[in-house]
Amino acid sequence: MDYISINKKAWDKWTNIHIASQFYDVEAFKDGNSSLNTVELEQVGNVQGKKLLHLQCHFGQDTLSWARLGASVTGVDLSTEAIKQANKLKSSLGLEATFVANDIYQFGNENTEEFDIVFTSYGVLCWLPDLNLWAKLIANSLAEGGEFHLIEFHTFNDLLTGYSYLPSSDPDVEDEGTYTENCDGTKLKMVTWPHSLSEVVNALISAGLNIEDFKEYPYSR
Q1: For 101, which of 80, 127, 167, 183 could close a Cys bridge (C-beta 3.0–4.6 Å)?
Q2: Closest Cα to residue 93, out of 58, 122, 55, 66?
Q3: Angle between helices 197-206 and 131-141 (to 10 degrees)
Q4: pLDDT tens for residues 102-132?
Q5: CA distances from 104 to 13, 29, 54, 100, 112 (A)
Q6: In the 8-state DSSP scheme, what is residue 219?
Q7: How many whole angstroms separate alpha carbon 93 and alpha carbon 88?
Q8: Nearest to 3 by CA among 172, 162, 119
Q9: CA 49, CA 62: separation in Å to the nearest integer?
């Protein structure tokens, strides 16, 4: 199954819906609002003058929010439409950023840069079939002393919504609409994978990363 092409088709479609949604509120973002939440701002800390790699960046709001805070940013996303919109948003704001349209595994194979911070957040892990490979590309992208920051919905939530909690090589293949309030009813095939909390932690440890902090919160975002 060509999950990359299937998911890319879905996210190319969803991007144009998301751009027009109140959920993302692009106009408020253009007026200076940050898309970052307190959780990630406190976790990542001061990014002034640091090189930051944002994996699965969608159309770049969070990436550009980090740029506004002084980071030198690179955003990577599977969707060519998302990266197209990210570049348009960057240009309209006069910000510096590099956006790359690529599967993150392929990006990891090709990347030769090192970053002070690798960041990824909110609904990212389910799109990845191999967390060990994911963790290795993160470790290989970090400069000496660099930090990886993950902010994600709790994997236990899968049990509450009828999905498997434990990891499986067999993906979930479903026709779904998108999550913003302006979804037009279109449903597209999407391919996702369940990942347990232990799978996430062990993948990072196996890649040689030291886990210095782990927090859980009584809310999703």
Answers
A1: 80
A2: 66
A3: 40
A4: 999 999 999 999 999 999 999 999 999 999 9
A5: 19, 26, 10, 10, 14
A6: S
A7: 9
A8: 172
A9: 17
pTM for this prediction: 0.94
pLDDT at site 47: 99
> CA separation (Å) from 102 to 30, 58, 191?
26, 11, 17
Domains of the chain, start order: 3-17+46-206 (3.40.50.150)
3-state SS, residue 93: helix
Amino acid at 50: K
Q: How far is CA 162 from CA 91, 102, 130, 180, in A?
A: 42, 31, 22, 21
Pairing of strands 142-151, 115-121: parallel
Question: Which residues are 100's β-sheet partners?
Answer: 76
pLDDT, one tens digit per residue, over 29-63 is 999 999 999 999 999 999 999 999 999 999 999 99
152 neighbors 134 (Cβ within 8 angstroms): no
Distances (CA, A) of 96 to 66, 93, 200, 203: 11, 9, 32, 32
Distance CA 195, CA 154 (A): 10
